[in-house]
Amino acid sequence: MIDTPHDLPRIAVTMGDPSGVGPEIIVRALSCRGIGSLCRPIVIGHPEIMHRAVQRFAPAIRIREVTSLEDYFEQEPADSVKSIACLSVCNDGVLDTPAGTIDARSGHAAFEAISAAIDLALARRIDAIVTAPLCKKSLQLAGHFYPGHTELLAQRCGVAEFAMMLYLPAGDAIRGASGLGVVHVTLHMAICDVVAHLSIDTIASKCLLAERAMRALGADHPRIAVCALNPHAGENGLFGDEEQTMIGPAIEKARMAGLEIAGPLPADTLFPAARDGFYDAIVAMYHDQGHIALKLLGMYSAVNITLGLPIIRTSVAHGTAFDRAWQGNAESAGMVAAIKTAAQLVQNHRRSSPCLFSTR
Q: N or C: lower Cβ tally within 10 Å for the chain?
């Protein structure tokens, strides 16, 4: 069955930090042919910022300011190659912020955009959120003390069990039919704090989230692998015992819940095996263990998916790139992939219940 325009997933694309590459990659992604046949996108941010972006990077496109979300979605969709809709939620103070700089006004604008999008998603007025990157320092200078999007989303959605998953769709770099997901047990914290935040229950919970997310992305029987924490998986306790005291028991707990799961395995040999299609998802113990390997496989096509929320959220897997901001050379493939993945998740979610990403 082919969706009619009114049935297409309604996706809110948040502007992110306007001093970064967000406005440019949004304009480039939404002007790609084919996006309009997959979803009904609308930018959440400041129309004037988006107008400046199209003037600079795609002058043939116009920004259409939307005042009523419901009226917009009821109308026949305009050609996104010619017109991009924007819902205004930011105050005008952000218009004076310079490009490529840390600034509280930009941080507050990014916060306003994501907050509005969360409210719309929780009220089921949109089907998914796709976020452009924000600057954590600017966010905190504006008085919003979150380590990043993931924690902000979890707090606003009232969930305690959540995870970041970096996802690469199947393609040249990934040979598995459903792509490859990497879920992180710990996230934005100092490396010296990681061990204190690991436990049997938290690791097992992330394994369950990984399995359900990969089902949502098309894997009928997801094969999960879990990274060791220590080199060579600890060498039977020689380099640490976390594999024996926490990770191994967590894997057994997940296995008892019905998961097809392996580990703990050294990350340096696990990732090549996953790349070659032996596993659908990896559970990494800390941020860089998962990020570095996956981004080497596909820095600009990776998608960030937040698991455990009652809403669908995807994002690019890179930051604000202040060194490239507003220069016309930002890479938009990640934003295209994030929008396509969000649309896919919405369609799959419509065919399944309860929430695809909850562990409950």
A: N
- Pair 201, 137 in one domain: no
Rounded to two decimals, the pTM is 0.91
CATH number, domain of 193, equals 3.40.718.10
For the stretch 67-87, pLDDT in tens is 999 888 888 765 555 889 999
Could you report the per-residue pLDDT of 288-342, keeping only the tens digit for each? 999 999 999 988 889 999 999 999 999 999 999 999 999 999 999 999 999 999 9
* Cα(96)–Cα(358) distance, integer angstroms: 41
262 shares its domain with 140: no
Burial (Cβ within 10 Å: 0-12, 13-18, ≥19) of residue 254: buried
The answer, yes or no, to whether residue 202 has pLDDT greater than 90, is yes
197 and 265 fall within a common domain = yes
Number of domains, the chain? 2
CA distance 291 to 328: 26
Q: Are residues 167 and 301 in the same domain?
A: yes
- pLDDT score for 351: 77
